[in-house]
Amino acid sequence: MIYWHLFLAFFIPGILGYGGGPASIPLVEHEVVGNYEWMTTQEFSEVVAIGNSLPGPIATKMAGYIGYTEAGVLGSIVAMFASVAPSLLLMIGMMAILLKYKDEPEVKNLTKIIRPVIAILLGFMTIQFGQESVEGIGPGYTLFLMVASFVLLEKVKLHPAFVIALALVFGAITGL
Amino acid sequence: MVERQEEKNASERPARVLYQNIGLAFFRTGMLGFGGGPSSIPLVHQEVVKNYGWMTDDEFGDTIALANTLPGPIATKIAGYVGYRVAGIRGCLIALAASVIPTVLLMIVFLGLLQTYKDIPWVQHMSASVVPVVAVMLGVLTWDFIKKSGETLGWMRAIFIIVLAGILIEGLQIHPAVVILGCILIVFSPLLTRRKKP
C-alpha cells in the first residue's frame, strides 16, 4: 500500500509539473505534507533546503529521499521511478509524434498556460513556509533571516548552497 | 585533438567503454549541476555534444525543446533519452542511475544526520533557521515564474490565470493536479476539434 501511495505521490507531480523539477516542488509538497502527511512543513523545508544545497536534479532527490524514509530502499526506487519514468517513456515513445506536433501552437502554449498555475502554487508555498517560520522561531528572527538571505542570494549573488550553510551555522550558534 | 577524435568514435568501441562513458558523463553533470535539473542543461550539452559527440547541436536543441514540452524533471528526461539513443535501454538505465543515485545518497546521509540529532536544542534551532531561507528561495522562484508568465502571455492574461488558479486551489480546495489537467484539456481542445475535420 505504501508503495502504491509513494508511486502516486511522485507520479502526479512528475506528470503535471511543467517547467522541470523545481516546478514540481509545490505539487510534491501538496502530496507529501498535505495529502499523505508523511512530513511536517518544517521537515519538508529541510528536504528542500538540503536538496537545494546539493548538486543534481531536485525532483528525484526529493523522491529518492522521501521514498527512503517512508519505505526503505525499495520505497526510494519506487518514488524515483514514479517521478522519472512516465515523462521519460513519453519522450522516448512519442519522439516521432512530438517532432511532428512540436510547432503546433497548442503544444507551444501548454507550458505558457501552466506556468502561472505553478507560480501561484509556489506563491502559496512561500507564504506557508513564512508562517511556519514565524510560528517556530518568532517574527523578528524570521524577518532578519529573510532579509539577510534575500540580500545574500539576490544582491551579493552568493550560491544558494552557501546561504543555506550560513543559515545552518548561524542557527546552530544562536541556538546554543 | 587525437584524444577527442577517439572519443568521437566511442560508439564503435567495445560496449563496456560506451556504458562507462555514459555513466561518467551523467555522473559529472549530476554532481556538478547545482540548482536543480534545468541549470545542468549547459553541462549536459558540454558532455553530449562537445565531449563525446553523441549528438549534434541541432539534435540536442530538438531534444531540449521536446523535453520542455513534456512535464516532469528535465535533467533525467534528457539523461534517459540520450542514454537510450546512444546505447538502448541499458544506456538509458545507466544514464539515469548515474545522474540520480549519487545525489540521492548524499541527501540521505545529510538529512539522516539531521534527523539523528534532531532532539538536541541547538540542532532544532539550526534546522528551524533554514525555513525562512527556503521561504525566500521559493519566493524568488515564484517571482521568476510570475515574470516569465507575464512576458510570454502578457500581464493581463497571466494575472487572470494566476488569480483564477489561486481561487480554485486555495479558495475551493480543488487539487492542483485537477487544475493543471483542466488547463491541458482547454489548451488541446482546439487541436482535437481541428484534427477531426479532414
TrEMBL record, chain A:
Origin: domain of life: Bacteria
Recorded topology in the membrane: Multi-pass membrane protein
Annotated compartments: Cell membrane
Chief place where the protein resides: membrane
Keyword Transmembrane: yes
Any single GO CC term annotated in Swiss-Prot or TrEMBL for this entry: plasma membrane
Presence of keyword Amino-acid biosynthesis: no
Name under which the protein is recorded: Chromate transporter
Source species: Paenisporosarcina quisquiliarum
TrEMBL record, chain B:
Keyword Disulfide bond set for record: no
Compartments, as annotated in UniProt: Cell membrane
Gene Ontology CC entries for this record: plasma membrane
GO molecular function annotations of the record: chromate transmembrane transporter activity
Keywords, sorted A to Z: Cell membrane, Membrane, Transmembrane, Transmembrane helix
UniProt-listed InterPro entries: CHR_Transporter (IPR052518), Chromate_transpt (IPR003370)
Transmembrane regions listed in the UniProt entry: 93-114, 126-146, 153-169, 175-193
Membrane topology: Multi-pass membrane protein
Keyword check for Transmembrane: yes
Family: Belongs to the chromate ion transporter (CHR) (TC 2.A.51) family.
Protein name (database record): Chromate transporter
Organism: Paenisporosarcina quisquiliarum
